[in-house]
Design brief:
This protein is an alpha/beta fold and 271 residues long. The chain has a domain of 180 residues: Rossmann fold, CATH 3.40.50. The protein has an eight-stranded mixed sheet with strand order 5-4-6-7-3-10-11-12. Strands 1-2 form a two-stranded antiparallel ribbon. A two-stranded antiparallel ribbon has the order 8-9. β1 and β2 form a beta hairpin. α3 packs across α4. The longest helix is centred in the middle third of the chain and has 25 residues. It is globular, with a radius of gyration of 20 Å. The termini are far apart.
Length: 271
């Protein structure tokens, strides 16, 4: 009968539903070399933005930008990393509750947080130093970093806020499987592969000197990249036409709006 409500089916306490196209918040990492424009790209996300900064001078390109609220941890004691593994995510949860108008949280950068986590991690391991952190010291670093990332993902997801992690690019290293020189995210241990698994958008940004390129699919020499938003079966990258001086050009918010209008189905790469 028309208008009849389907009976609810549950698996324990979990509701069972039919597959539906659903547009979710963005959860992404933007990585690339220094000076490529990662901060600028992240700043094109929906505003207001809560910017959690760990990079010294990392927000200098955001001068005079409205709708960006910066919490600067770059000069704080390394023991601050401990607070980010807790449910409150270093205080982010409370800020989002007090300011529901905030649309995006930017974590800048995972690489600098990772370094801070190592500085604190070695204080918990007897005999460990920055010159010789030991396996236990590296383990503490990796644990603090992954716990912080997962906490921020959960905290922002619970209130449907976008989250963007920024990360630096590592030097080329030999791939264990192929033997080829490979470029990846500058974080320690297995986090190069573990972090992207937790996110739906993994973009690489580079500045060739003539143009800025955003790659959304892994290549033979660079990984990881992926995208739920963009069509990845064709070209693996596109030119980002944006003027950081006038702040003119399309960015993350524009692409997200197009994705929403397309009901969460993949959209073509920008031309």
């Amino acid at each position: 009968m028309a208008g009849t409500k389907e009976p609810e089916i549950t698996l324990g306490t979990v509701s069972i539903t039919t597959p539906k196209t659903q547009v979710k918040r963005m959860a992404m990492v933007i990585w690339g070399p220094s000076g490529a424009g990662k901060t600028t790209l992240a700043a094109t996300a929906p505003r207001p933005i809560l910017w959690i900064n760990f990079d010294p001078d990392g927000t200098s390109s955001l001068m005079d930008q409205e709708g960006i609220l910066i919490a600067d941890f770059s000069m704080e004691n390394s023991n601050k990393v401990v607070t980010f593994k807790h449910e409150n995510s270093g205080g982010i949860k409370q800020v989002l509750e007090d300011h529901p108008e905030i649309k995006t949280v930017v974590f800048d950068s995972v690489t600098s947080f990772n370094e801070m986590a190592l500085k604190h991690g070695i204080t918990e391991v007897r005999g460990a130093t920055m010159e010789a952190p030991t396996l236990q010291g590296y383990g503490r670093r990796n644990s603090y970093t992954m716990q912080a990332i997962m906490s921020v993902i959960r905290t922002t997801g619970a209130v449907n806020k976008h989250v963007i992690f920024i990360a630096h690019e590592d030097v080329p290293k030999q791939d264990e499987l192929t033997g080829a020189m490979m470029v990846s995210i500058l974080v320690g241990g297995k986090m190069q592969s573990e972090i992207p698994i937790k996110l739906s958008e993994v973009w690489h940004l580079q500045d060739t000197g003539k143009k800025r390129l955003i790659a959304i699919r892994s290549s033979r020499l660079r990984k990881p990249m992926k995208s739920r938003m963009f069509e990845t079966s064709g070209n693996s990258e596109f030119t980002w036409n944006f003027d950081p001086e006038s702040w003119e050009g399309a960015g993350i918010e524009d692409w997200y709006i197009t994705w929403v209008e397309n009901e969460g189905r993949k959209i073509p790469l920008p031309k």
